[in-house]
Structures are given as C-alpha cells and as structure tokens.
Amino acid sequence: MRHAVWEHFEEIEPRTSSKTHPKAKCNYCNEQVRGQPKRFLIPHLLKKCLQAPPSVKQQLQGPQIQRSSLTPTTPASEEASDVELESEVATEGLELVIQSPQPQGLRSQTQLQRLELMRLKTNVAKYRAKAMEAEFMAEKLAVWIKLKDLGVPDDEIERSLPSL
C-alpha cells in the first residue's frame, strides 16, 4: 500500500525497475521529487515546499501517518539496503551536480552538504577496502608462518597460497 503522503503528490514517472523509484510532482509547488516517502516526499513538504498548507505539515509531523489502503505498491520501494541507500545518495548527488547549471559558488548549502557527504562515504569505502586487503594479507602471512613452522617447504607453500 502507498504511503498517505502520496495524496499530496502526482506520480509523473513510474518505476522502470525494482532498483528505481517513481518521480513525483508536488501538488502545491509543482516541484519534481523522487518518489520515496520518507527520504524525499515528506521532507519536501515539511522543509522545502513554501506552498504546502500548515495543516498538511502538522499532519506529517505527527506519528499518525498511515499508509493509504487505496493505492497498492511494492514494499521494496519503501525499503532499501545500506548499499542501495549509499548508491541512492551518490546518485542524488550526481543528479544535483548534473542538473545544476549554477556555478560552484552559487550552489545551495544543501547541495554542498550532499556532495561532501558523498565524498566522505567514498573515502570510507576506500578505507574499508584497504582495511579488508590488509586483513587478508595478515591472514595469508600468518598461514605462511604457520606452514613454515610446520616444516612445509617454501615451493609447496607458494603453490598452495596465492602470491603475496
């Protein structure tokens, strides 16, 4: 079932696959937003849309938001793994860069924060990969030492372990 926030948006582009999300147009300001209720639709109405009525904002701020039983959708559109979320953040940031005809100095603070978040997440991923590689190397060396202590000849160790 679709989230109740969809009452304030018109779907302008449906999902093209299970990995994409629909595009929506705000009924109040006509801004196009990615059709994810919790990540984009609700924040749009609460923080960005100046034309949204106060009653709508109050309704969305309360815990009483329910899914409407009128329009079905796949539950996968509401949930995403960490990898999908990180990918989504990166994609959103790239969209901001591509769609923004403004010079670097005129980008909004939100856009700059999103780009910085993408840079930080990229660095975290690089360091995680390096840490995993170092851990793998340490384990290989430990195995090498253990086999050497057991008297296994070097040439046999080299054949059985990938090259260091």
Automatic annotation (TrEMBL):
InterPro entries: Znf_BED (IPR003656). This is BED zinc finger. The keyword Ubl conjugation does not apply. GO terms for molecular function: DNA binding; zinc ion binding. It comes from the Eukaryota. Residues 57-85 are annotated as: Disordered. Keywords: Metal-binding, Zinc, Zinc-finger. Residues 1-56 form the BED-type domain. Residues 57-76 have a biased composition (Polar residues). It comes from Phytophthora infestans (Potato late blight agent). The keyword S-adenosyl-L-methionine does not apply.
